[in-house]
Amino acid sequence: MSNTLKERLHADVIAHLRDGNRLALTTVRNVLGEISTREKSGKTPVELDDAQVTTLLQKEAAKRHDTVRIYTEAGETEQAATEITEAQIIEAYLPKPLTREEVEGVVDGTIAALKADGQELSMRSIGVVMKPVTALVAGRFDGKTVSEIVRSRLAS
Measuring CA to CA, which residue among 89, 81, 83, 96 is closest to residue 9? Predict the structure, then answer.
């Protein structure tokens, strides 16, 4: 049985407490706090699924990377190092990024499958191709680049 990303984060809080890893503990607790805030922020409470948690984790890691730049420019190397470590802790929960070649393979496979189903594909079919491709590569490759790959394939 595979656990949800949230369950993994909660389990890791206990592990980090036990191991006395204060930075990892604080980082994971902060991320769980962000998830909790997001879940309770609307009119009705929601439960974030793994895809939504992944998006939130990507934003949290990106925030850390932005802060690293600010600290580095200010000569605050110790704080910058802490932010880098926090970003790495968060990124460990993200799915393994895909290479451009892997994404091109997904795009080519999707286009071939759609054509096999009798779909006529043209430049107007970007949405038709993007939907299944995005479902397969979400959170693992830059969406803008995926769109460019799909466009180039449909143009040829």
Answer: 89
Given this model, what pLDDT does residue 64 score?
95
CATH 1.10.10 holds for 100-155: yes
Let me know: does 90 contact 57? Beta carbons within 8 Å.
yes
Question: Which tokens is 120 given?
Answer: 């006529």
Percentage of the chain exceeding pLDDT 70: 99
Find the Cα–Cα–Cα–Cα dihedral 52, 141, 28, 66, rounded to 10°: -110
Structure confidence by residue, pLDDT tens digits, 8-55: 999 999 999 999 999 999 999 999 999 999 999 988 999 998 888 988
Number of continuous H segments (helices) and E segments (strands) in the chain: 7, 0
Give the CATH number of domain 5-91.
Answer: 1.10.1510.10
Cβ distance 130 to 147 under 8 Å? Answer: yes
Q: Would you say 126 and 150 are in contact if contact means Cβ atoms under 8 Å apart?
A: yes
Q: Which sequence spans correspond to the domains of the chain?
A: 5-91, 100-155
pTM of the model: 0.69
